[in-house]
Every structure is written in C-alpha cells, then in structure tokens.
Design brief:
Hypothetical protein af1432; 14 helices; single chain; mainly alpha; 65% helix
Length: 271
C-alpha cells in the first residue's frame, strides 16, 4: 500500500529548524518564532501586505541562522559566545549607559576577576561588536539566498542591525536607506529581548526613548499604539502564533527541497 504524503509546509520546517538555531545561540526556545510573529504583526499594523509582509515573516524566522558565524572569536573574548550574545541582546549601542549594562551582564556567576577580564576584553577589542554583527548578517543573508528566498529577505537580514540614526552595522545606513522589513525586524528582536527582561513597562519606556534614534518613529508608534502584541510574547506555545502569522498563501516545499534546506543550514552553521 502506498501512503500519499503532502509536501511539507515551509513554515513548519523552518519553525523546527529555528529551535535548533535558538539553542545554538543560547537563546530561549521559540525566540525566533516569537520574533517573526511579532515583526509580522507590526508589519500588518504598518499596512504591509503581500510580498513586503512575507519578507518580514521569513526574515524573522531566519534571523538566528547566522549567529554562530563569529562564535569562535566571541568565545575567545569572554570564554563563552552565548554569554556575549545574551549580555548585549537588546542594548542600545548608541547609549553609553546601556552598553555598560551589557558589560555588567558578562560572565554571570563567575568570580570577580573573571568578570573583570571579560569586561576588559570586550572594552578593548576594536570594533568587536561590529565584526560580530557583520558576520551574522552575511551568513544569514547568504543562507536566505541559498534557500531560494526573494532578494528582499536577504536584504532585510543583511540590514537587521542597522539603526535609524545611522549608528548601526554593518553598513551604517540611516532612515529611508534601510529596507522597511529590516527596520521592523530590528525593532522586533529588541522588543522580544526587552520583554523577557522587564515586561511591557521596559519595552514601552525604551521604545519611547529610542524613537527616532535607534528605531524608526513609525515602527515605535505602531507598537506603542496598542498592547495587543503582548499576546504573542506571552503565549505558552509560540508555534501556533508563528504559523497563524504566515502571510497567505503558505508555500510548501518538496522532499528534495527539505533536504536542501537542512543541508544548507548545517553547512552555513559550521562556517
């Protein structure tokens, strides 16, 4: 007897893959799915539909696939690449106080001399943060291209750490020069991190303060207008939220396509 099997839904495949990349970067499980669903909700509130909205959705779920690109160098700085990523997740790199907060979170639970050495290593490494970001963006964008996503997805991933005020990386782009999807994704990933750290009050306070600096004003206004986005971050299971957020129609992959996706992701993760 032959059992007919439907082609897998691409979103389901990438959702499963994102759990592995969350673990690979030391982030809580479902971080990528929550970020993608949140970014898509923001995109809808800003009036995006069709392909522009799909770019936001796919870039959101692929964002962690390049985060191991600089793992060796990050580990050499502080002893644990995960600690470095977690310490600076959500910080405002344009504000000294925020960067100092990130420094204080380095090497948690270690001895004071060990923590001081980690802080000194990061503080004295020339452009370490910029190089880490450039490597992450390049790997994620390359993977998106390998997987056959539209150029807009690769563009968004390549710009996901650019700032509205021009102080971001890797290209120092500003304002309208940053792709709309990248503006949304940049804010969504910070919102997700801040919410885990301090809830709605911290998110709203930081968005108000960073509006027009780190983040595009329109993106901040869309989030601050209503708190319905909190349901995405509070959900006990992010998978249904992520799958439901997918712009229609949901693409499906072939068996050979699934093999290509997993092989390409594994190859990029090792680079």
């Amino acid at each position: 007897m032959t059992i007919a099997m439907d082609a897998p839904r691409l979103a389901e495949l990438l959702a499963a893959l994102s759990l592995a990349t969350d673990l690979g970067t030391g982030m809580p499980l479902e971080t990528s799915m929550r970020t993608s669903a949140l970014a898509t909700a923001i995109g809808r509130r800003l009036g995006l539909v069709g392909e522009p909205l799909a770019v936001v959705y796919w870039a959101g779920i692929l964002r962690h696939l390049g985060c191991t690109a600089w793992a060796h160098e990050a580990a050499a700085l502080v002893g644990d690449d995960h600690e470095l990523l977690r310490a600076f997740q959500g910080v405002d790199r344009g504000r000294r106080g925020s960067m100092l907060d990130g420094m204080r979170r380095l090497a948690p639970g270690r001895s004071l001399p060990r923590r001081v050495r980690a802080m000194a290593a990061v503080a004295t490494a020339p452009r370490a943060g910029g190089r880490l970001i450039a490597a992450q963006c390049a790997q994620a964008a390359a993977l998106a291209t390998d997987l056959g996503f539209t150029p807009g997805v690769a563009e968004a991933l390549g710009q996901m750490y650019e700032r509205h005020d021009g102080g971001g990386d890797p290209g120092g782009l500003a304002g309208e020069a940053i792709a709309p999807a990248a503006r949304i994704l940049h804010a969504a990933q910070v919102i997700e991190a801040l919410y885990r750290r301090g809830g709605v009050a911290l998110v709203e306070g930081e968005l108000a303060r960073r509006r027009g600096g780190q983040f595009a004003p329109a993106v901040c206004d869309a989030v601050l207008a209503d708190r319905d986005w909190t349901a995405i971050l509070e959900a006990a299971d992010a998978t249904p939220r992520f799958l439901d957020a997918e712009p229609a129609p949901p693409p499906r992959g072939s068996r050979s396509g699934c093999t290509r996706i997993t092989a390409s992701a594994s190859s990029r993760a090792r680079q």
